[in-house]
């Protein structure tokens, strides 16, 4: 018995001094170990939490289950509702893994934690405790999020890039057509932009693209609208829950904003100002393209018609309108 006690005491001391933040719950959910690394992570001392079910206070501002509690309750199905990511690879054995943003109430601030929890059972297979370990991977998560933003953001203008545009178009098409909502698309091109670039240089061209992006986004005022740099001097806007007439109104508003900005384009002639050609298409009661590709092609053809009609105008698949 003495040897067993010595081994048990050694195991407890070992766990208490692990560099990985770790706590252990008994089969009722009460804390029996709260190691020093866990104290440093949460700012809560072992003496304040051992023997209680207050371990959640180290990580959340409101009472809710920690991953170890879900192991005790054999509640793997609740992970998706409580955690940002379910990483469990062996839930059948009661070993759960997840990731979550946690607000640490005592030390303050948010940390993104990778969490693992698994059962400890006796010789008869009965649960006697659950171990939860935590790794602070906030730096890695923030770096990942920045990379994800960069992957979908045009680096020059700061608005969405072609990749994000394509993803959002597909998503909104499925959402709109599923419930019969209208949606519209604007394709726009800066008129005589090559002449602008050739005359004033590429740095001026870059500044011009940034300014146009700012003007365009200012005229699309809803959170659900997406403005994207489609490529070169071409921009595109997705307008959910908007019919053709509504999209034409937005297009004219954008044209007016660019006209009022009065950006000189000396490459296009003396006194010339920058203008936009805009093509508009929609999925609504009178217009029923069969796919997002068809919607995009219709807007592109309308843009081409606007260019052929003398530029600085708005064109739908059916008619050319004064800007």
Structure characteristics:
11 helices; six-stranded mixed β-sheet; PAS-like_dom_sf; diguanylate cyclase; Beta-Lactamase; six-stranded antiparallel β-sheet; alpha+beta; GGDEF_dom; 2 domains; 323 residues; Alpha-Beta Plaits; diguanylate cyclase activity; transferase
Briefly say what this structure is:
The protein is α+β, with helices and mostly antiparallel strands and 323 residues long. The protein is built from eleven helices and twelve strands. The protein has two domains: 2-143, 2-Layer Sandwich (Beta-Lactamase), CATH 3.30.450; 154-322, Alpha-Beta Plaits (2-Layer Sandwich), CATH 3.30.70.
The percentage of residues in β strands lies in 15-25%
> Could you tell me the radius of gyration in angstroms?
29 Å
- CATH class assignment of the largest domain: Alpha Beta
The major β-sheet equals: 6 strands, antiparallel
Bulk shape? elongated
CATH topology of the largest domain: Alpha-Beta Plaits
* Strand elements, count: 12
How do the strands of the widest beta sheet line up side by side?
A: 2-1-6-5-4-3
The proportion of residues forming helix, as a percent range, comes to 25-40%
- Terminal-residue CA separation: 91 Å
Q: Structural class, from helix and strand content?
A: alpha+beta
Spans of at least 5 consecutive residues with low confidence: none
How many structural domains does the protein architecture include? 2
- Summed up, the helix count is 11
Mean of all residue-level pLDDT scores: 91
Domain PAS: 7-51
Organism: Jiella mangrovi
Domain GGDEF: 181-319
Protein name: diguanylate cyclase
